[in-house]
Amino acid sequence: MIEIENLSRTADKLLAHEELSDEYLELLFSFTEDMQTLIDQLASTKLDQSSAEKLKDLYDKHALVLEQSKSARDGFFSNMKELEKRGKAIKRYVDNLPKRISRMGVKKG
Question: Within 13 Å of residue 103, how many CA atoms lie on the same side as its CB?
Fold first, then answer.
């Protein structure tokens, strides 16, 4: 059975991250897999009082992790939109060719 304390520590690590990084995403992926395994295991298990309290604490942390990951996702998508907008502006600037090309040199005198 997955330890509730280990999941709680993983949730604390996730909540300590302030930026979206590869480490954060890997930790989030393993946390969600372990949470799903724990939920499946708890369906057929009775808990004592101390485990129920730990589970309540884990539930609260899980809600915070979900909120944090949703805000990180929204920030990621807004950053992607901004980069796409900048990319389009750069393409317009680079693709702007001269309207007229002169083959004659500069007139002297």
Answer: 0
